[in-house]
Amino acid sequence: MGYSQLAVLLLCAFMLASGTTADTQNNGTGVPARPAEVRIGALFTFDSVIGKAVRPAIELAVAHVNADPSILRGTKLNVLMQDTNCSGFVGTIEALQLLAKDVVAVLGPQSSAVAHVICHAVNELRVPLVSFAATDPTLSSLEYPYFVRATQSDYYQMGAIASIISQYQWKQVIAIYVDDDYGRGGIMALGDALAKRKCKIAYKAKLPPRATNTTVEDILMQVNEMESRVYVIHVNPDSGLGVFSAAKSLGMMSSGYVWIATDWLSAVIDSSIHGNADVMELTQGVLVLRQHVADSNIQKALLSKWNNLTKNRSGYSMRAYDSVWLVAHAVERFLSEGNAISFSADPNLVATKGSSLQLDSLRIFNNGNKLLEKVWSMNFSGVSGPVQFTMDRNLVHPAYDILNIGGTGLRTVGYWSNSSGLSVVAPENLNSSALDSSTNNVQLHSVIWPGQISEKPRGWEFSYHGKPMRIGVPLRTSYKEFVMQDDGPDGVKGFAVDVFKAAISLLPYPVSCNFVLFGDGLKNPSYSDLVQKVSENYFDAAIGDIAIVTNRTRLVDFTQPYIESGLIIVAPAKEVESNAWAFLKPFTFQMWCVLGVIFLFVGAVVWVLEHRTNTEFRGPPRQQIMTVCWFSFSTMFFAHRENTVSALGRFVLLIWLFVVLIINSSYTASLTSLLTVQELTSGIQGLDSLISSSSAIGYQVGSFSRNYLVDELNIPESRLVPLNSPSDYARALELGSGNGGVAAIIDELPYVETFLSKYCKFKTVGQVFTKSGWGFAFPRDSPLAEDLSTAILTLSENGNLQRIHDEWLSGTQCNADNNGDASNSLSLSSFWGLFLICGLACLLALVIFFLRIFCQYSRYSSEVEVQFPEPQIVNRPARLTTIKSLISFVDKKEEEVKNALKKRPNGSRHPSIGDSQHPSMGNTAREEQSTLPT
């Protein structure tokens, strides 16, 4: 309410003069003297549930303050009470009357609606307004700086309710609330809290502030027609029981319903103005919240005094008691710091002097801002717990008891606190120690729900009241294996229909369905239009081969996919028959070249290793070359006749034969595959080549593939050709793009698999380039979608989903996955590891061989040079002579070298490489020298 509305109330109400108090005088020392009396006001409805509880609490608190010598020494605290009569208009008048009596603070009001109006007045006059019952979260806004909430905000209470709803996995609730500031502010906070937990308010049922029984029944009948069965009721304590009375008469307090009441109901139960038996009878099975008040010594000490005054006490009465002490402590600190209690005329009201309203009697509390600072800084232990404020001006440690009404009493099923969330442990125990994950976020104790059931209600019911659900089914003209029209009682059949029926049968509750065909029967209908009908509630659901794509999920909710899908390319292909040179195809040209080189290389290595010790690898040069070639290639067939005698030669041959074994096996397998399986080839290499070309592309009528090609792949619509049936597919692919057909078709994988099972002359190109699935569509936030998803997963786990698939979609004659794009020839990359091992083995053997040769040659040549110095030959370089001698030594037989080295101790002549140049060299040496390779 704005200032203009406040002015209207002032004009209508303030027709009286009010008493004033003199300003406090100082004692001549410059320090203001303590006043003999400090006035505070109290605003509430005397004859109300909360009013009857707080009045004795306020009176008792004032008496205790005045009797305590440690506070307000020499100053008496006086409270002036005004009855607001549950009226915003009357409450405003009463508030102005209190403010005209120079009160330093006002306790109350209990109504959030009245508090919104009064806040403007206290802001103007700078008087703190300490409320013990106004819970509207919007009162904490910066617009009301002088409003002090001495109770818990509904912001936290609605957070507790959202936690309960999330705990029981309900997704939607119906809010029943009184349509005033208190109700609207609380339900707004509930909506925000539910949104954080991915839940929502399905409907807001507004009750007039003074609703009649007939009005309440009409509203409840309306919400009973809706799907949700979880009700959050946020009304006033004095009229709230009328809602449960009407609900009971309408049968809404039976099994299947969930009622969650805010703390207004606990205030009613804690009071004694209503018969407890009547209240309990109306609210059996209801969950109710109550502000948590921890047991303390202060509370126990007051119980006896409280019982003597009244039996009507609640959390609000304790908050009111602490509010008095809050103001008393703030005033004590205010006076102790030398601040004076004084009032001055409001310049905004002086202009109205002479008016019959006498508004100039309202005066500004000069040091009201300082007293407000003292209130915000207070920190003490009260009856209701710690009284301390946070930075956002709320009490610390907000917590609630979660109670369940059953029988003749209340039973605590858990707690909620802002720091620990839901728990079965009292919040003060969690706050006093580190939170233990084993006790946090645990299940609440068991609840007895309406209808005396202990099993958690599902939270929703079908809103059709016996009417079957209208299920939209596409009337397909092609690929009828998935869904088709039938003459049976359901009118439809197919793979998708059987999956839906099987899933429905697994639900723990009966669902009656009426299948309605969608389409003209001339061509496949638009599935986007079918989904749109579901979002508009024309259909209660839609089943069939409906792809789950992004733009559709914005309109409806889908179940778990019951079959994988995605777009793939289908292109024409031609069969390639085997030819006379097919035996060369198992290996690539590069592979054949490398094989020839490595065969010769291994043969040469074996010749080097065997030449000195094996007579089969000796002889004239031509014979040795033929031996190397024959040995190399005969190993391919394991038909080599030459035996290896050296250890290094056998090592190399063993590695090489293993490599040959692998190569032979691979060649045989690849050749067999090429001769028995026909290869499919196509001009389309993949999605990129298809997009970059100008060829026509086909798509299925009604499928989302058209929008995907245009919107996502930016293919011009002029290139797209709509096709309806598999025969249209085959005809268009056979004609080709230049002859009125298409170069390729892009369609969903299940359709393509069905098409290729009948038309083997075509093939898929590449892989599926979108990932999606088929599901059943339901309106947004439909709980049936979640239950059916669970049922579909069950079908998948028990094998029934695969059984239904095989029943409708089995018997394929062609392999849809044979893309034929990759060559069947084996390349070098498949064998480079084997070749590397073989090459390393050959190099290792050669290194060992030549190291041994060098050692022998060193020993051999040194002895010969000592005994037979070789004459200098001017025309022949020394390096050339050494190389020639080394080659000659390598060509010698191993046995000859060993025998020559053994004769050294006897001093006999050593045959030398250079013996041919000495006259004493025998004929044998010259003959052997003549056999050196040229």
Structure description:
By secondary structure, the chain is an alpha/beta fold. It is built from 31 helices and 32 strands. The strands form eight sheets. Strands 7-6-8-9-10-15-16-17 form an eight-stranded mixed beta sheet, sandwiched between helices. It is elongated and about 140 Å long. It starts with a helix and ends with a helix. Belongs to the glutamate-gated ion channel (TC 1.A.10.1) family. Residues 925-934 have a biased composition (Basic and acidic residues). Keywords: Disulfide bond, Glycoprotein, Ion channel, Ion transport, Ligand-gated ion channel, Membrane, Receptor, Signal, Transmembrane, Transmembrane helix, Transport.
